[in-house]
Batch of 2 targets.
Target 1
Amino acid sequence: MSRMLVLTETDLRPILRLDTSAVDCVEAAFAALATKPVAMPPILRLDIPEHRGEVDVKTAYVPGLDGFAIKISPGFFDNPLLGLPSLNGLIVLLSTHTGLVDALFLDNGYLTDVRTAAAGAVAARHLSRPDSSVAAILGAGVQARLQLEALTLVRPIREARIWARDPAKAAATADDLSAHLGFPVAAMAAPEAALRGADIVVTTTPSERPVLEAAWLEPGQHVTAMGADSEHKNEIDPAAFTRVTYIADRLSQTRRLGELHHAIAAGIVSEDKNFAELGEVIAGTRPGRVRPDEITLADLTGTGVQDTAIANLALARARAAGAGRAIDTKAAAGDIA
Amino acid sequence: MSRMLVLTETDLRPILRLDTSAVDCVEAAFAALATKPVAMPPILRLDIPEHRGEVDVKTAYVPGLDGFAIKISPGFFDNPLLGLPSLNGLIVLLSTHTGLVDALFLDNGYLTDVRTAAAGAVAARHLSRPDSSVAAILGAGVQARLQLEALTLVRPIREARIWARDPAKAAATADDLSAHLGFPVAAMAAPEAALRGADIVVTTTPSERPVLEAAWLEPGQHVTAMGADSEHKNEIDPAAFTRVTYIADRLSQTRRLGELHHAIAAGIVSEDKNFAELGEVIAGTRPGRVRPDEITLADLTGTGVQDTAIANLALARARAAGAGRAIDTKAAAGDIA
């Protein structure tokens, strides 16, 4: 009753990887958003401008899952000057029946990396053409790698291109991914070149100005924009909204924090336009792609249901593997529980 | 860098008790609210009505403190049927410089108990008459005990009365407190009798209807209402607002969640009335009690700055005592860090 399971990043990495079951679990969470009385309050946000810091707290209750996650995600952007990562965080999983803490995932953001990449796979599975084989990734960070890997789980990818502001980083990432995934991954000098002939495009940058111009889009492409998760971030040229079928992860959130926010600000779409959400497309209650030559755009800002889904999966895996350590809050932390 | 200190309730109880330094630390936090650019976002609230559950997440950044707390407070009101406590929770303390987790307090709400009682002492220190010697407590739960104990830290209390809906519980609490505090504590059959001649009144019930009638108030009394922390809770007769000098812990919050909320709803005070906050009284920028025969009412709904203050104190105490256990998130949780 007063016991909880504690797992570190090191405990979690071997038992929960980006694989089809992670994708399926995030897909089910999105479907629940459209079909069940999910409770997902707005993100709690704290800013600490003195240290270029920010913290987001996300949560969601999904009926039918035993636990609900509360995720604490700090981003402190001067940390690299101190030799520390900018992004960190942990997830607390509480019982939906008692509110007691079932598990603490001291994951430094690892589960977020996995569930974010899994959401990219879910978007591609439901919005890209089934025969999509060429991927373009803008950005060369952790998500750039994971998003490409995620695409290979759902589409027959046989070639990829990477563009990033830092050409050396793009080249290194392309080399790594080529070796890891077993198909050619080329670093490109310009984003436009990366997009040409691509079936699926994923933008994974922290950019505050568009990195993808509307004119570059080609019929039949699917674009997943997953970099923007706050008011000032913007990867997609607002003019693209005149050419695409737009799908939000959570419309109330993308209106404030996503690419949609900038299209509304630019006066290109109206604020009250009732776009479909990814969960509705999965559940079949709203259409996604209806024609092969359509251009689709998935705007992923990150939702609490993804955290709740991946945290439940992580606890199931941990129990099955006997991983982690039980702590009894009614005993000293140093005692083995 | 990837290490954090983990303390359980059992670790925390001996090193952080309700004492003058806890009161001073919470007092300083309230003063900071009035004098420093504190960042305290609105509470994140998730409701799970199927299980009569709710979770509040509170946070506050106080310039000058090394850490900021994020507190997760679940309340699941069917838990007693399962032999479990209704209230639980934990506090995460993050570095204000890097956002890294410095400490995890798996306290099951213990630090909240202490900081809430300490706030009662702070209110009494600044709003009650200095010669206050008779206390009345409405309610007989954990806070009833702690609030009376807290008053003894700041005022020369020599007698107390307790009233609660359950007379047996009131009697047992009165007996315990009398033995523990060394002065007479009597259980009273009616709240009105408890108030008669009292200098300080503390209401600590989860009531949804007033337990304190306006007509019972006597000149010179100070009342601290600390039971209400959500829209539907209400301890003080709204008519009391015509007789009292009202002080909020956080005005934007008591307008929504406190006794003030019900006085506004009853049309007795206007929504935009700019009442003083406790921190302003402490800082001396707004008056509190100005006459001995004045009746003061402190409306305490609980604030993130209290959590941040007590969590910083707890970490300092833990380090000084060598208490708790370090966990390295880059190692397995089972390994001694």
Target 2
Amino acid sequence: MEYHPGLHLLTTLYSQRKDLLHVSGQWKTFIQSQIAIHGLTEVGNCVHDFPDGGYTAVHCLTESHISIHTWPEYGLCTCDVYLSNFRKNNDVITTAIMEQIKLFFEITHEEMHSLRR
Amino acid sequence: MEYHPGLHLLTTLYSQRKDLLHVSGQWKTFIQSQIAIHGLTEVGNCVHDFPDGGYTAVHCLTESHISIHTWPEYGLCTCDVYLSNFRKNNDVITTAIMEQIKLFFEITHEEMHSLRR
């Protein structure tokens, strides 16, 4: 069998939408909608809201995972979208979801890393 | 407040221990022991075993996350250890846990990426 590395995008996103960084409710609705739109399969998730604000959420997919960690006190989050290419090439979807995440947070600037793995 | 980027290690690990790549049981025991030993706090996890073998597991931590996706048919897994440094510097722990993961799988070779974020 041949090995087809996937695409892993890792960003730090800066946003003034403190409401979206503070609690996970809108994120969860948004990202699960993205997962459905792109025909991905969520096999589980863990979402944890911290008592003083900020949240950690990871969505496990048959294709790998999407994760976010927010720090509203710094006005930023770190976000990963990683889709493997074993069953089919998901590169276009990986990029599309990260673009939608940036729009969701109405980001002011970003740092992006892109890895093949 | 000052921003202290964390360390995110991303590996592809090759192993002949098909048993460890096939089902998640031993991984879960191992990694939760590592989380406890290093004083990290798991706030949730999702672990999914695929019907034909292989698993996806993500452990959400107050410090960020640890993830693994295994493909026993290729004899490999992709693994992330990402600990933020907001509360304290966790770089030593990040590196130590990745080393323990390599020992756990008795890896034959690896590809490693290291990111500050």
